[in-house]
Amino acid sequence: MNNLFKLSTVFLIFFVLLTSCKQEPEVKNKSAVKTETVITDPLPSWNDVNSKKEIMAYVNTVTDKNNSSFIPIADRIATFDNDGNLWSEQPAYFQLLFAIHRVKAMAYDHPEWKITQPFKAVLENDMEALIKQGEHGLLKLVMETHAGMTSEEFEADVKTWIKTAKHPTKKVGYDKLVYQPMLELLHFLRENDFKTYIVSGGGVDFMRAFVTEIYGIPKEQILGSRIKTEFDYNDGKPVIKRVAALDFIDDKEGKPLNIQKIIGKKPVFASGNSDGDLQMLQWAASNEYKSFMLYLHHTDAEREWAYDRESHVGKLDKGLDQAKKGGWTVIDMKKDWKVIYPPDTFEDE
């Protein structure tokens, strides 16, 4: 046994010496050896047009430490509107359609709604009459249907609705109608150490109930409009109760105000699609760092919708003028995007 061990040891030493003496084949011209590099397009759903080129050029510039426009990671703040910018918003804001659902679900306990606007219009499916109620009527609708419950109850109701409700014309879930090119943009920015926020006119608790799973943006980075709430110790089981009163509207000048209050820094990258986003983009444009202002122009009536200056939803008028005047980047949805929605959006239809 001892001899066998010695023989094995000698063989092992011989093998190590043999392999260590092997030489690599001589390469006469080492520069001729090429290493193949696969370059992945971070925005594959975008056509190779100005909007894509400008976005990529900006990100490459401000993340280059050797460039005078370099932005430290801590200051790479990007803010995005939601309705009409990250997902569709026609024929009405999705949260309004949720409120309509709530009116019909609650109507039995509110017989007075049959003769009271704007609830009467909803119960009679009279959208024209509902629109005539204006902003005040729509806010009243949201206040009444989004209050009188705890924050947990409201979140559970939103989650149930989003899993079952179908868009009236697209016939798919509302959460399916997100823009694939914008999902890619969010991912591209985060890959380059930008911190992405939603800053929307929509209800903050409505969005927080489910959009984190869609966009990869945590709840604490979602800003929106708020109704008033109050704390109730509830016999040792604390709850946050939702009250039928408006606390803050995160639209127009409300957006930079909310950004300053909650984020505490100006965005260097801001994206929107309507006049309601104009002040947020103006705020970003005033940053001492090199900033990027991005408008999405809905121009695709066939794949989505086409609307701008005269629209009741997502009106883009003053913003479009300032974008052209200020040299801001404008996405032409029809020309700039290869696809609108993710590839599996309509696969069950």
List the keywords.
single chain; 349 residues; alpha/beta; Rossmann fold; eight-stranded mixed sheet; 15% strand; globular; disordered N terminus
Structure description:
The chain has one domain: HAD superfamily/HAD-like (Rossmann fold, 3-Layer(aba) Sandwich). The protein has 14 helices and 8 strands. Helix 3 (94-106) packs across helix 6. The protein has helices at residues 2-20, 50-62, 94-106, 119-123, 127-132, 134-146, 151-164, 180-191, 204-208, 211-215, 254-263, 278-285, 318-326, 333-336; strands at residues 77-80, 195-203, 222-232, 239-248, 269-272, 292-299, 306-307, 329-332. Strands 1, 2, 3, 4, 5, 6, 7 and 8 form an 8-stranded mixed beta sheet that branches. With 349 residues, the chain is an alpha/beta fold.
Question: If you consult CATH, what is the topology?
Answer: Rossmann fold
Structural class: alpha/beta
Helix segment count?
14
CATH architecture: 3-Layer(aba) Sandwich
Mean pLDDT: 90
Pick out the low-confidence regions.
1-32
User: Would you list the SSEs in sequence order as H and E?
Assistant: HHEHHHHHHEHHEEHEHEEHEH
Helix content: 25-40%
Major sheet: size, sense and barrel closure?
A: 8 strands, mixed
What is the approximate shape?
globular
Number of domains: 1
Radius of gyration, taken over Cα atoms and rounded to an integer in Å: 27 Å
- Rounded to the nearest angstrom, the distance between the terminal CA atoms is 75 Å
Give the CATH H-level superfamily.
HAD superfamily/HAD-like
CATH class assignment: Alpha Beta
